[in-house]
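We store chain and fold; thus.
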Amino acid sequence: MITTTLARSTLALALGTACLIAQASTGTSTNTLNVDVSHIASQGLLGASGNTVLSLNLGANTQINSLDWDVTLQAFAPSWLSELQVTLSSSDSSSAVSLAPGFGVDQAGSQHFSGHIDLTEQGLNFSVGTDGVLRLEFSERSADGLSPDGLWQSGRLSLGLAPAVPEPASYGLMALGLLAVGAATRRRR
């Protein structure tokens, strides 16, 4: 009875590992990360010291494939809604994408914006570095001396993420683990 249970456990482990390997190798696994952006001010130009920066640890080499937004922005005159932006980048800023939800709305005030962009289709998808950190910097596109220029009153950003595919060495370690479990099962029989 114990041998049969152990053999079934080994088989279940082997099948589970095979499924994980198949999923990782196809690259079809996509996750969504929702980021609440309520009450974040847009201060100065990109890179200014007073800007709000969120740092999110996504895991090494995670790829950013899409971006959805559902936000309400408020621009203080003389700033315009079109000037408020958020820039997504790797921690070393080697890869970056900027989003201005109110692009084209050249007026002050408050307004709701929503949308979606498939970064892969646009050739804008990118991966965070080996440290796994994604930076979101809230800024303005035009300097006018006002601080803050505007406010992300409410809403969220949704990021489509694809985890990094394991390296071949990881598959080798998984195979060694399965062989060790199989050998232990044979010894017990």
